Amino acid sequence: AQSVSQHNHHVILSEAASLELGCNYSYGGTVNLFWYVQYPGQHLQLLLKYFSGDPLVKGIKGFEAEFIKSKFSFNLRKPSVQWSDTAEYFCAVKGNTGRRALTFGSGTRLQVQP
Amino acid sequence: EPEVTQTPSHQVTQMGQEVILRCVPISNHLYFYWYRQILGQKVEFLVSFYNNEISEKSEIFDDQFSVERPDGSNFTLKIRSTKLEDSAMYFCASSGLAGNTGELFFGEGSRLTVL
User: Fold this and answer.
1) Which CATH topology does B5-96+106-114 take?
2) Range of the domain at A21
3) Which site in A19, A98, B49, B87 is 20 to 30 Å from B14, CA atoms measured?
4) CA–CA separation, B101 and B43 (whole Å)
């Protein structure tokens, strides 16, 4: 079975600070990895995804994530956060068994202070 | 931009009552899902639906739950006899046929409060 761990439950940063949110997954085979964001009062939106190829993936709004297979990690990064990045961030994994459903982590609440 | 819509946005019900949550997936999508998120906990998979039948379900999706696509556009989740622990945000999602790696598009959620 696949699982996802997000170790940071609540992160508070000042604007312009750099961000790194941790995500580790557990799955024995090939995976597809996702980061979703949920802004206050809104639905889950895809930030970026990794399927294959370059392990450094760039997404929307200046976010990127790096897939490190040896560490089973897919950490999310942004060099300089803005107040508008305040949201909850979810890492998700899908194994290559044919199952289409995603397994989500518990989420990280990011609060950016102006 | 096409989106997944869910109704109601918030429902309050008494324990033991039946609840139906409704979703309109993106029109050309073929795979549909329900997830839930209990306050402060992770987003949990409930069920996936394809070709008018359940393709996968989790251990949470017991006999109290059912899903239906009654008219080709709506996708509903029914909870037959609600329990206090069913209080959660329920998210509907859909995906297309972009290989096996298709992105899931989520609705804004329906908050269910069971008293």
Assistant:
1) Immunoglobulin-like (2.60.40)
2) 3-113
3) B49
4) 19
